[in-house]
Amino acid sequence: VTEAPDAVPQVRGRRPTRGEPVVDRALSLLAAFDAAHPYLTLSALSRRSGIPASSALRLAGRLLEWGALEREPDGRFSIGLRLWEVASLTPRGHGLRQVALPFMGDLEEVTRQHVLLAVREGEQALLVERLSSHGAVAALYRPGGRMPLHSTGVGLVLLAFAEAGVQERVLAQPLIHQPEQVPVSAATLRRTLAGIRRDGLATFHRGAPGPIVSVAAPVHDAQGTVVAALSVVVPAEDAEPRLLGPAVRTAARGISRGLGARRPPGTS
Amino acid sequence: VTEAPDAVPQVRGRRPTRGEPVVDRALSLLAAFDAAHPYLTLSALSRRSGIPASSALRLAGRLLEWGALEREPDGRFSIGLRLWEVASLTPRGHGLRQVALPFMGDLEEVTRQHVLLAVREGEQALLVERLSSHGAVAALYRPGGRMPLHSTGVGLVLLAFAEAGVQERVLAQPLIHQPEQVPVSAATLRRTLAGIRRDGLATFHRGAPGPIVSVAAPVHDAQGTVVAALSVVVPAEDAEPRLLGPAVRTAARGISRGLGARRPPGTS
Mean of the per-residue pLDDT values for chain A? Predict the structure, then answer.
């Protein structure tokens, strides 16, 4: 591709013109699905999207035709494989995964538990990939799902290296460790984040559903920006965070190098 | 969810009403991206979707707002992580992957090459997942990408167990083995498919870019339908298909059981 990129015209804040609300309604239909509701009847789709059933059916028809939705023999809708095919082109999901997967495989072979790869999306982490061995401890999060920044290993890394505005917005909220419901003070979290920036490593302990330790490290891109976080999650009883740290940092460096990073900044 | 599924009303073949073509245009914008073009300028987006630049910019604005598209600092568009988040809910992609990944990991550890999981989408195969070891042979296909049914191991399995109408449509086309450009007769392919149905296993040899062997087996769902195919792809020089077959079939059965299948039909 040799053509010059366009200048960036203003696209936000325009008055919507005729026809555009239809696009928003179509997107609302897609957003009605979630991990707990991968199949929806027409009435559930209508209720969850706030779109009257007759409009929902008409719009769903266009989405079915294209393959953004699929329909079961019993009439329930689900997200279509064609949408996943197009969506898999997202550079922050798929491109990152492809670089990361062999390194994640190495870590999983060594630890025999969970290996996680996450990116920041606003004030949450989004789990891009999880490799889990047979018999690994119970996992709280699924790929494609959201995770809190302040109470996961990968989330703490992403928060520690996020721009100041994001950190301040997160620190301004009442922070509760999930799922134990323990409050965290902003001062404690600030100290934790400073430690993560200093060490290039986060160690996070979670008590429930089973006691686990997550050890997480940052992944850098060619510009030195932290674009993702990698972690291993192991049962607390077997965990030797001092031994896991170098393994996670080594794999995270391998991924960073695959993304074009030279030497990750801030680590020796 | 306790509510009864709705009856299936007719949604195809309706006359489009006002506003719906906008949804089609928005979907055309998404379809303008492919693996060779994960980033598009506004002018490329307009040209590849056939939508005038002014409309394309207005529609892209709605998609950006929602997160279906993202924009680089230089103004180029890409598919957004939010779209991937929703699309990852597709039962045929994500649900299947989650069941399959630990078994794929086992196979990859044993073979140290590529392990592929594919589903049929019309008259092509769609690669849902690929695990690849460091140093594995050159791969032709990427996750989220299409593969020909008649010249890949997983494709042959999916074709062998597809409904008759699909087989006849594929067999009626001029069939060329990719990437060597060798023609295949329909009679030969019919015999190959019969053998795959008999053995529950496909062995496919490819000469280029490097000589490889793919050994593939079907994955069944709770209804006994073949919903996916699993394969290992190894360099032809090291391959012992007779030893790989049982490993692939064992892993495919593990995935089938995870999907609710009792005993895969047609295998002893």
Answer: 85
